[in-house]
Design brief:
Radius of gyration: 17 Å
Number of strands: 17
Helix content: 10-25%
Largest sheet: 4 strands, antiparallel
Strand content: 15-25%
Structural class: alpha+beta
Number of helices: 4
Order of helices and strands: HHEEEEEHHEEEEEEEEEEEE
Bound molecules: 2-amino-4-trifluoromethylsulfanyl-butyric acid, cobalt (II) ion
Amino acid sequence: MTDTAIDYEQEPREGEIKIHTTEDFDGMREAGRIAASCLDMLTEHVAPGVTTQSLDDLVRAFVFDHGAIPATVGYRGYRHSSCISLNHVICHGIPGPKVLKNGDIMNIDVTVIVDGWHGDTSRMYFAGETKVKAQRLVDTTYDALMAGIETVKPGSNLRDIGRAIQTLSEGQGFSVVRDFCGHGLGRVFHAPPNVVHYAEYKDRFGAIHRASNITLQQGMFFTIEPMINDGKPDVKLLKDGWTAVSRDKSLSAQFEHSIGVTETGYEIFTKSPKGLNKPPYA
Ligand code: MF3
Ligand code: CO
Ligand code: CO
């Protein structure tokens, strides 16, 4: 079966959250391992002088070599095997002829399908040396993701994830992007629930937005993927229909894991097999 057999237009983003079995955990573990190994592989290839398309080519080759399918190819018209989001790009950056230069920071996001299961993960990378401020943003974003994950256990609340991320990030003077969120996944790429990365915020019209307060249950699978800006949280979508940038051009960082709720807490499906969690990787 090819990826074209999956009808992504039918993906429900609202409704029942699927509860998965022990065998389903096995499926996600394998998909997550391959996605994370792919991100490990990229650590030695990100460098000044390299194009983002060449990195995407490496992703595609790696994914097929490991018996997997890149979930993003054919997804709502997207044609690449990864998203590469440089500097002030928040997410969904499209790989292309752009050449990396010294000091660039970027998120690389890979989703693979293995035996029908989706492994979705992203990390930050540095080309060459990085400034202290970028390192602090990246460290904070990683810490925020992990703080969100650590709240996860049966009986805890979805909103606690967002609260942990928001408290940590805003405490460092950064802002949480509100326009994109994590998501349920499994045999589908994007499923309920929406996993927002804040507990609540007031928009520019004064309206309060709160994260949903559903109770987590064993067997739920979802991603947590905070996008944190060194500036305002506002997003602008470029004319290509994909690339989302920070409106004020501030630097943006993101990390993503796919996780499952276990009997006592959580399992991270997309942990780096080599312990390459965040840059610098060398
Ligand atoms: N991997 C992204 C996520 O975390 C989705 C990318 S969809 C694409 O959900 F089409 F932009 F690749
Ligand atoms: Co995702
Ligand atoms: Co992703």
